[in-house]
Amino acid sequence: MSVSLQVMYPIGEDTQFDYDYYFSTHMEVVGQHMGPHIERTLVTKGIAGGPDTAPSIYAIATIVFPDQAAMGAAMKVSDPVMADIPNFTNVTPQILIGEVVG
Questions:
Q1: Which of 2, 42, 57, 65 has the greatest number of beta carbons closer than 10 A?
Q2: What are the tens digits of pLDDT across the range 13-29?
C-alpha cells in the first residue's frame, strides 16, 4: 500500500518563507536525494484559508512512496534535504505520515 509523507509549513508571527527557493531549489534537492524512492510528488502553495481568510500554511509537500520500505529508504538519504530547510524558511515543519487510501 502506498504511503505519503506530508510536510506542512505553518504561517506564524515572525516567520518567513522563500517560495522561489523552495520551488526552484529545495524540491530539486528532494528529487536528487530521495527521488529514486518517490512514486509522485504534489506541492500546494497556500493562497487562502477560506473565503476572505488568509492562509495558515505557506505550503504543503505531499510525497507518495510505493510502500513503507521505500519511504524508509528515502528517509535514510534525506539529511541533505533536511539541512536545506533553513535556506528557505525559519518555520519548523509539521509532518504527517499516512496510508494513501484514495
A1: 65
A2: 999 999 999 999 999 99
The answer to whether the beta carbons of residues 15 and 90 sit under 8 Å apart is yes
**CA separation, residue 59 to residues 19, 23, 28, 36 (Å):** 9, 10, 16, 23
61, 27 in Cβ contact below 8 A? yes
Grade residue 102 by pLDDT with cuts at 50, 70 and 90: confident
Take residue 18 and report the three cell numbers written for it: 522563500
If one counts every other C-beta atom within 10 angstroms of the C-beta of residue 6, the result is 17
Mean pLDDT on 85-97: 98
